[in-house]
Design a protein that fits this description.
99 residues, 4-stranded antiparallel sheet
């Protein structure tokens, strides 16, 4: 999951071992949160990336598209996000007070 493939739950040994995600290679990730079918990543510069199931707008891109690779949540760019959280079917974040 996160590498652009669509078959992410097969019995393949490559899916059972954590791998660096190429789309985030140049980013310093400081926090990761995983829900039932989606993942949220926070970088050191306060940017948020999401991928996985987009049902009910879980990924924060204003649509319900499932994404197999991390995508920057552009609507949060005007804020420096300092905390992310996710659970079964929700995603939340918190911005720095100065925003």
């Amino acid at each position: 999951l996160g590498h652009g493939e669509t078959n992410n739950r097969g019995g393949s040994s490559t899916n059972e071992i954590p791998h660096k995600i190429k789309a985030l290679k140049k980013k310093k990730c400081i926090s990761v949160a995983c829900g039932w079918c989606h993942t949220v990543v926070l970088t050191d510069d306060g940017q948020v990336y999401t991928f996985g199931g987009g049902w009910l707008g879980l990924l924060g891109h204003g649509d319900e598209v499932t994404r197999t690779s991390p995508k920057l949540v552009e609507r949060l760019l005007k804020h420096k996000i300092v905390y992310i959280n996710t659970c079964l079917l929700y995603t939340s974040d918190a911005a720095d007070e100065e925003d």
